[in-house]
From TrEMBL, chains A, B, C, D, E:
Pfam families according to UniProt: Bestrophin_2
Protein's UniProt keywords contain Transport: yes
Name this protein carries in UniProt: Ibestrophin
Presence of the UniProt keyword Membrane in the record: yes
InterPro entries given in the database record: YneE/VCCN1/2-like
Superkingdom classification of source: Bacteria
Membrane topology type: Multi-pass membrane protein
Alphabetical keyword list: Cell membrane, Ion transport, Membrane, Transmembrane, Transmembrane helix, Transport
Organism listed in the record: Candidatus Pantoea multigeneris
Major location (coarse): membrane
Compartments where located: Cell membrane
Membership in a protein family: Belongs to the anion channel-forming bestrophin (TC 1.A.46) family.
């Protein structure tokens, strides 16, 4: 499941990082303008007793860096947790089908039916998290006997899990699997339930809005005032240093905001699509259900989605 | 279970963040007043040898930022743990009912009875954590045969879990489920026990009070003295810089205090109510017990509770 | 299990925080004295070329703050882990008794006998961790047939767990419970073993002593030298700023030292007593073994122990 | 499984650290050149009002150090997680074979066949992660009846796990092991699935590229500008201090970049080869399948790979 | 398992901390010498334009403190993980023997034989981790029928675990325990496998050497240059401040290096010996196999090993 895009570093620099730089370009421009204003006016307004020096900004800047470090940690932790949850999805789907094939050898039809529910589950969760329409994927994948039930439910992903449970219960009822084997498979269904709900939690509960707002405000105000604090000491060097410091703070703040919502379709978000294809490839390969769908490839901007 | 409120960013800014800004408004006003006093008096009192400079405040400010970062981490960890516990609640309830329906197919009555205990458990825990009266919800949900037992117990949430255990034991006694299936369901009951007790732990054991107090005191004193350290260098700029730095420290300290107790009904607290509705919707949908209750929506201030 | 004491904030401020302030009062007084000496003498000794400025103390202070942040994290992690272990104790005891009552319905005597062993286990662990004499509690709780065995063992807490295992084995031998049910209960006994040993680990392995010593020394020396670095710049303000900075560093260092050993009986330690009462109340309530013992309440200093 | 290379500290210094120093040698040289230019020119360009002082660089440097600390943490966490996953591989393989030998005593042939699949699984995962050709190792290890199936699959590592599941299912079908024993072994196969997918996740999802880029850029620009900020104050000491500070920042940034991809063949990467040999030695020893392969030893540069 | 040594604080200060102070004594002395040189020469070499000021050292010092904080975290995490693994060892051994005694009541001989294998396992792991000769302990503990097999194996600790698996398989073969009970005990054997391999991982994979080297170098160079940066400002106070700052950095760097390898026999390392005795005491007490060995006591330097 190697999903790292292969690309020339220069295009990657422009293509990927574009996702942060465009977001802060306007504010960096503003900062440049403020720097010029600061150089032109500081001697005039200092005459009235309005003075700014670097010392308090140093204290403030380091404090903001510490709080921004906290926010980066929190956002990155959400990104990583989301990635781990989708990794567990791959783990669990592989384990589930391996169990079914070990318990019910030579029953290819049953294994393919179950695998179809598994694949539908992944795609359905992807659509739920991105708030896109999963109708087409469900039509393609869900076996006919459950199609109506799933597609009419307001909570189709959870309903698919219920169908897997029903399928398993039927195998037990007709004696194909014992209670113990039911238990082993059921433990992996619990796992899918945990993965689904974990993703819903990340999607549904952002970092407390006040954190985001406090840091956004303070970073913004800090960068705006900075040129006025630097102008007296640095004079013509003010724009360079001010834009540099602003770039460091604004870009990290902006990236943290992006990683906070890992299920989107921006370049720094998780490639859910590619992961669903990976799951489908794995399950179909285990069932010798050829040909496999092609692995997802980065688009012309070298972005997987 | 998407519970993210949809709202105009401007109203969100006023509505949500209002929960922190009002709390510190008074202290920011005080800081402004101190700044004015500092500008008016610093030349006078420096004449007597009472001098404050920025350097020691820089050392102190950065140290406080480091300790405040620690406190933010601790508070946020409590918030996240509480959210994860309620996420596990959703996971476990879904898994439990899926197990019951897989094990006992076509026994709709039994599944609905068990689901009623599950729903009552969530609502009861909500009321326990918020110290509100859960009588109404228990009356609405608990099946009649357990109603007296539960409502007379001093520990109704734990008693509901005991009832689930009893229900399960009865199914086993009458041979409807085997020991092994009992074991699988029982593992999820253990999980509910862990969730309930985890929430009680967070509600009952605050961050050691001395931490809160030391940081509250030092942040407060730091902000009060700051204008006197800035006045000599910044003169008329003192109020702006002093209020800005104070805003950064006070708002983060205030938010940390709020997140520390995640089960309240303030805007930055967890929407326990909405989560109980989500659980009820999921369980009723799985039982085709229609119509589903409407999902909880943010109120006119865009706050879910 | 709400164990948060209800009290007037002012008394709480005096009563709780008293646990840190008294410990550092002497050192703060010393710091005040040093400040006065510094103001009186700095012009004299600077004449000989002995000079201290704020700059190196700024570097040192921030470094110490970073290392103190590390120590705070480590101490707080111990406190939290200890609290989580005792939370798991409540979880596991509730689950164990729920299992017994689900497996062996209508066998009230057996359930009460087992619950007695559970309660004795909690109290015995409390006494072991606090190195107090648990004889009275063991006499009160341990059923007669195991009393001698437990009270003569050099390791009574572990012996009580062995008794639970024996009790369980007997139920299995006489056919009251199947191997599978034995397995489910046994998994929770493993859990109790993990809790007991985890607490022993925290109690028996402090943070490496060298950490404690290095930080204690550097904080102490830093605070003692600080007035001499401040005096030239701040003059009469030296005592205020010096005591303020010292308060911040000394109180956090002192609190970290206290939290490092969470099983003591100081105000910032864990209320093991109250938690044992909570466990007893829960188990007796589940057995309808009335009247329940009263919940533990804070003493006149608003401290639970 | 002691894989620490034994070597003279001086050679270790040159050999191991070489992996970082060569990467930054060019940039350190550039920094030295900039320092010389700065000393020669600063008086000239300051005449035009282009001034740089240390104060804003101090603010910037500390901020970058904080963010670099975050990046180091993230990279090191990936390294550690990768190492723990391969440690779990050793754990699980040992446990699996111990189970097989405990369940099927005196069936040496079966145990060796299963162990062969286990060894092939480790080597295959190594080749997958390093994107090398595993054909030779698969030919050497995979028992003949599965050889074609495995070697023709586009996902051979996962296919090997499927084969272990099939092998286990066959033992169950022919009555050699009961459902319960199947369950215990199957739980460890789930574990192998988790390990494989965890490694794929680390290999396939780098730290968001924007983080890497932002820090790489800011560290680089910071070091390039630094000499111009130092020259006025330090004069001829500029090169020493500038190269020293640059060394600290560049080397940590460079090492973080290296640890981010722990499955490579550089000296600071994980010795996957040595770990596969360790697994093979353990499994063969348990089967008394002598002689054991020699443990992997560091090469002439004291590097294990 | 209280292993905290009881000692007079003054001797503890000398005895324990001695493990760090002697390691850095030489470097502190060097620093003192450099300070004297700096005071004597700074006016002379500044005349040639070689100037050092505190400002860049402040930036560098805080950065190094941040990175050193990272290294301390990593080393301490290794120490804690090692301690938790040995705590799990105690947990698992207690649980295993409790299970055996619950399953096979009145079979004292069998329980003692199994306990002997358990004790041998702990001692053997200790010898493996410390690279000492375990022959004597194995001769004392391993029951005769397995003695040759274990003592001839190149991997005796893992072989002992295999013997426990074999012992368990024999009990199952002769019908003394059912498959389910086999499963419960086997789960704890998996746990022992995880503990053994986790310890091997910590012992065999140090923190990437480049980290250690970069920090060691920068701390060392920083401390050596520091006096020259301080001399102009502090004059005769240079030695005091320089040695103080150096002590803080060097001692933490030295302690981090020591904790990184927690299985040694230095005073800040884990008392593996005492823990093996604790395990032996617990298991013998559970079997009423009296008299118990005496608990390990600190030596005359108050050090447990």
């Amino acid at each position: 499941m190697i999903i790292r895009p292969q690309q020339h570093w220069f295009r990657r620099l422009l293509g990927w990082h574009g996702s942060v730089l465009p977001h802060i370009m306007f504010r960096l421009g503003l900062n440049l303008a403020m720097s010029v204003i600061a150089i032109l006016t500081y001697q005039w307004y200092q005459g009235f007793g309005f003075r700014l020096t670097i010392a308090p900004f140093s204290l403030l800047g380091v404090s903001i860096a510490i709080f921004l470090g906290f926010r980066n940690n929190a956002s990155y932790a959400r990104f990583i947790e989301a990635r781990v949850l989708w990794g567990s999805m791959v783990i669990t789907h592989r384990s589930l089908l391996r169990q079914i094939k070990s318990i019910l050898p030579q029953q290819e039809q049953a294994a393919r039916e179950f695998a179809a529910l598994q694949m539908a589950f992944s795609w359905s969760l992807k659509h739920q998290l991105r708030e896109t329409n999963g109708r087409e994927d469900l039509l393609r994948l869900v076996p006919e006997r459950w199609r109506n039930e799933v597609m009419n439910s307001p909570l189709p992903t959870n309903r698919l899990l219920l169908c897997m449970g029903t399928w398993l219960g039927e195998q037990r009822s007709k004696g194909a699997i014992s209670d113990i084997l039911w238990q082993s498979v059921d433990a992996n269904l619990n796992q899918l339930s945990a993965i689904m709900t974990g993703c819903e939690r990340i999607a549904g509960t952002p970092i407390p809005f006040a954190y985001t707002l406090i840091l956004h405000r303070t970073v913004y105000l800090f960068c705006s005032l900075l040129p006025f604090a630097l102008a007296a000491d640095l004079h013509f060097m003010t724009p360079l240093v001010s834009v540099f410091i602003s770039y460091t703070f604004l870009s990290l703040e902006s990236l943290a905001a992006e990683l906070e919502e890992p299920f989107g379709e921006e370049p720094n978000h998780l490639p859910l699509n590619a992961m669903c294809v990976t799951i489908e490839r794995n399950l179909r390969d285990m069932n010798d259900d050829l040909p496999l769908p092609a692995p997802a490839l980065p688009d012309s901007n070298f972005v997987l989605n």
